[in-house]
Design goal:
Elements (H helix, E strand, L loop, with lengths): L5 H29 L8 H23 L2 E2 L4 E2 L8 H29 L5 H4 L1 H9 L2 H20 L2 H32 L7 H30 L3 H5 L6 H10 L2 E2 L9 H22 L8
Parallel strand pairs: 2-3
Antiparallel strand pairs: 1-2
Helix pairs in contact: 1-2, 1-11, 2-3, 2-11, 3-6, 3-7, 6-7, 6-10, 7-8
Length: about 290
């Protein structure tokens, strides 16, 4: 490997970080399973979260090795293991597990900590807190169809819809996370059994606000929406032809500008590190702990 190329150094760092994440997650899973008998009422919840976390962490490991970009079908290696279609297939499981890791803890916290504030009792507030979080999974599930359509046809408009659905999915859990966080931080100060819930809600709010600022303030308007008019005038591949090309025809390169410049590497650095660590936290099944 030519380490004089900064991209190879970046790739090596990402692979090492993800390998450490896999090992850390495996250790945490073993510890969590040993404690299941102490919390029989939470065993199903913890199992769901562990499984979702395992899917995300292992797919993230794979994708950190076989880096790819769906627009223009760029790959890190000239290998079928790096085929954009194979990466997209694995990403489907990771992204749906991501939806579970974000949505299910909010629903569990809502059940475990019923809110008594006036806002939560109002029709609109109750909808935002108890019903809207279900939209996270619906949005991310629907986004998968746009992701495949964009990969096959290279239709930028479909990628724009996919990214919009991701933003809406995260927005759907934000009201509940904020209201629950405010209630728990205010009414359960110093109570150590709430430390895991507090950490998860704080990280979720911080990540979601940052993500929405990035999406609506930069990525969506400048990277996607601005190009939709010209994209609609282009001729695009059929789904059948695009699927064949996505599986067999792709371009392997290590050129900084070809990959999309600093934006691509900032985004993927965050995905392969911070996002993975956040999901490991959520996979620990945020809940009120035993004293």
């Amino acid at each position: 490997m030519d380490l004089s190329n900064p991209l190879n150094v970046w790739w090596l760092v990402m692979v090492i970080l993800n390998a450490m994440s896999v090992i850390t997650y495996a250790v945490l899973c073993v510890m969590s399973i040993k404690r299941d008998k102490l919390e029989p009422e939470n065993r199903r919840y913890k199992t769901i979260m562990r499984c979702a976390g395992a899917i995300f962490v292992f797919v993230s490991m794979y994708r950190s090795i076989f880096v790819s970009s769906y627009p223009n079908r760029l790959t890190w290696f000239d290998s079928m293991l790096n085929s954009p279609l194979i990466i997209r297939f694995l990403a489907t499981f990771a992204e749906l597990s991501f939806a579970v890791l974000v949505m299910v803890p909010i629903l569990h916290i809502n059940k475990e900590n019923p809110l008594k504030c006036e806002f939560a009792k109002s029709g609109f507030g109750s909808f935002l807190i108890y019903k809207l979080p279900y939209a996270a999974f619906i949005c991310l599930f629907t986004a998968q169809f746009c992701a495949y359509g964009g990969l096959f046809t290279q239709h930028l408009t479909l990628f724009a819809i996919e990214e919009t659905l991701w933003a809406l999915g995260f927005f759907s859990v934000l009201p509940a996370a904020i209201v629950q966080g405010r209630d728990i931080f205010k009414n359960h100060k110093g109570e150590r059994e709430y430390r895991l819930v507090k950490a998860a809600l704080f990280v979720l709010c911080l990540y979601t606000v940052g993500y929405l600022i990035y999406q609506f303030g930069f990525s969506l308007p400048f990277t996607y929406y601005s190009q939709i008019p010209s994209d609609l005038l282009k001729n695009h591949l059929t789904i059948a032809e695009g699927a064949r090309l996505a599986l067999y025809k792709f371009s392997a390169c290590r050129d900084f500008d070809t990959w999309g410049g600093i934006g691509f590497f900032i985004w993927h650095s965050g995905y392969f590190s911070l996002c993975t660590w956040m999901n490991i936290l959520f996979a620990s099944a945020p809940r009120k702990l035993k004293r």
